[in-house]
Design a protein that fits this description.
two-stranded antiparallel sheet, 19 helices, 61% helix, globular, disordered N terminus
C-alpha cells in the first residue's frame, strides 16, 4: 500500500486503500461518528424548539397573550396590564440575553462523537427502590381501599388530598422517579450497556405511579415531569435521516398545545367538571378557559402580591430557594427566624384573588424576594445556566444530558411557578448529582480506528 507524505505525524493511506481501510474499520467499530454518516442525516438536538431562546420566545408569546384575558370572569381584581406586568417582560428578556451570551461564546463540538452515559445498575436500582417505596408509603390508604380511586373516576371525589397526606422527607423521594426516567433515556439513547428487563419494568412502574398520583392528588405535573424529561433526554441521541420525519419534527410545537389541551380536558372531566357542567355549554369550552386561567391568574397573582404589599424585597431567599424553607427541621428553623412570607400570600389570595388558582408564577416571587436589580441578575444568571446546559446537552456531556431536561421543564412551567426554587426540584437535583458522580463515560461507539 502506497503512503502519502506524513501529516500531523501519521502516515496517510492513498486513494482506494484509504476507502477500503475506512470501510473495514466501520464494520468493526460500528457506525461512523456523528456528522460522518449518510448525507442529510441531522441531529434531533438541532431542532429549533429545543433551543432555550426558542423556549423563552414561546413563553414570552404566551405571556403577552394575557393582555387579552378576561380576568373579571375568574378573579375579583385584575393587575394586568400594569408597570409590573411590563417588568415581567424585562425579566424574560434578561433570561434570553443570558442564554444568548453563552450560546455566542463558543460552538459546541457536535461532531466529536461522544460515547453513551453508562449509569451503573446499582444507581438505577437505588432510584427505583426509593421511588416505589415512597409511593407505597404515601398511598397506603389507597392500597387499603381501592374504592377511593373509583370514586374519583366516577366524579364523586375531586382528589384524595385529605386521605393520602404527604409525609415530609418520605413522599419527597417520589421525585427520584424523574431522575430515573432521565437515566433510563440516556442509557437507551447512548446504548452504553444493555438495559436489563427490570429497568424497563421500573420505567413502566414509575410512569404508572405518576398517573395514579395525577388522579389521586390532582397533580398533572407528576406526569408532565416524566414525559418532558424522558423526551428531551432521548432527543440528545437521536438522528433523523428522513426529510419527511424532520419536517414533521419541526412542527411539534404546533401539535403539543393540542395534546396538552386534550390531556387537560380528560383530567378535568374527572376532577371538576361535575361542579361546573351547569355553567358551560361543553367540557371543551370549560377546560379551555380553565387551562388559560391557570397560567394567566398565576401572573396576575404574582403582580397582585407586589401591588398590595409594601414589605418587599425580603432579601432572605424565601422564594429564590423555597426548597430550603420547606425542608424538614431546617425549614422550620428558618421560618421561625425570618418569618414566613407565604402567610401574607395566602391572605392576599383570600382577599384579592381566588385560592383555587394559587400559583404566583415563576417570575414575580423572585421580585418579591430580591427586588428589581436582584431579580434581573437572577434571571440573567438562570438564562446563562440554561444556555450552558443546552450546549452540554447537544455535546452529550454528562451534566447536559442529566440536567438540561429539567431546565426545559423549568421553562415550560415558568408562567405558573418557579421549578428551580420549588421543593420538588431539590430531590431531583440531588438524585441527578448522584447519577453524575456514578455515571461513567464509555468509549465512543461511533469511533473508527486510525489508519
Amino acid at each position: 500500500m502506497s503512503v502519502r507524505p506524513i501529516q500531523h505525524g501519521l502516515p496517510q493511506p492513498d486513494g482506494g486503500a484509504w476507502i477500503h481501510a475506512r470501510m473495514a474499520a466501520t464494520r468493526l467499530a460500528g457506525p461512523l461518528p456523528w456528522g460522518e454518516t449518510q448525507a442529510g442525516a441531522r441531529d434531533a438536538s438541532r431542532l429549533w424548539w429545543l433551543h432555550p431562546l426558542s423556549c423563552i420566545a414561546g413563553v414570552a408569546l404566551v405571556y403577552a397573550l394575557f393582555m387579552g384575558f378576561d380576568f373579571e370572569r375568574v378573579v375579583p381584581r385584575a393587575y394586568i396590564p400594569s408597570a409590573m406586568y411590563a417588568w415581567g417582560g424585562v425579566l424574560l428578556l434578561a433570561m434570553a440575553i443570558g442564554a444568548a451570551v453563552i450560546a455566542a461564546g463558543r460552538s459546541p463540538a457536535l461532531l466529536r462523537g461522544d460515547g453513551g452515559l453508562d449509569v451503573p445498575a446499582w444507581a438505577m436500582g437505588l432510584l427505583l427502590v426509593t421511588t416505589v417505596f415512597a409511593y407505597l408509603l404515601w398511598f397506603q390508604p389507597l392500597i387499603a381501599n381501592p374504592q377511593l380511586l373509583l370514586d374519583i373516576l366516577r366524579g364523586e371525589r375531586s382528589n384524595l388530598r385529605n386521605v393520602a397526606v404527604t409525609m415530609p422527607g418520605v413522599t419527597t423521594m417520589t421525585q427520584f422517579g424523574v431522575a430515573y426516567v432521565i437515566a433510563h433515556a440516556a442509557l437507551r439513547g447512548g446504548q452504553a450497556r444493555p438495559i436489563a428487563a427490570w429497568e424497563h419494568l421500573g420505567l413502566a412502574a414509575v410512569l404508572m405511579l405518576a398517573i395514579v398520583r395525577s388522579l389521586a392528588w390532582s397533580e398533572r405535573l407528576a406526569v408532565i415531569e416524566l414525559v418532558v424529561c424522558y423526551l428531551v433526554t432521548s432527543l440528545a441521541f437521536v438522528r433523523v435521516r428522513r426529510a419527511g420525519v424532520w419536517r414533521a419534527a419541526t412542527v411539534v410545537p404546533m401539535v403539543a398545545p393540542v395534546a396538552l389541551y386534550v390531556m387537560f380536558t380528560t383530567t378535568e372531566y374527572f376532577r371538576s367538571w361535575d361542579f361546573y357542567r351547569d355553567q358551560y355549554a361543553s367540557i371543551w369550552s370549560f377546560s379551555f378557559e380553565r387551562l388559560i386561567a391557570y397560567y394567566a391568574t398565576a401572573s396576575n397573582n404574582g403582580i397582585g402580591q407586589l401591588a398590595e404589599s409594601r414589605q418587599w424585597p425580603l432579601l432572605n431567599g424565601r422564594y429564590a430557594i423555597e426548597w430550603l424553607y420547606l425542608m424538614p427541621v431546617v425549614g422550620d428553623e428558618l421560618r421561625a427566624v425570618v418569618g414566613d412570607a407565604k402567610t401574607q400570600y395566602m391572605q392576599f389570595l383570600e382577599q384579592f384573588a381566588r385560592p383555587e388558582f394559587n400559583n404566583p408564577s415563576g417570575l414575580f416571587p423572585i421580585v418579591y424576594d430580591l427586588g428589581y436589580v436582584g431579580s434581573m441578575l437572577y434571571f440573567l444568571g438562570i438564562g446563562a445556566l440554561i444556555g450552558r446546559l443546552h450546549m452540554a446537552w447537544r455535546c452529550r456531556e454528562t451534566g447536559g444530558v442529566l440536567f438540561y431536561p429539567v431546565a426545559v421543564l423549568f421553562l415550560v412551567e415558568l408562567l405558573r411557578f418557579n421549578y428551580f426554587s420549588s421543593s420538588r426540584f431539590f430531590p431531583v437535583a440531588l438524585a441527578l448529582a448522584v447519577l453524575w458522580m456514578a455515571a461513567r463515560r464509555t468509549a465512543p461507539r461511533w469511533g473508527v480506528a486510525a489508519p
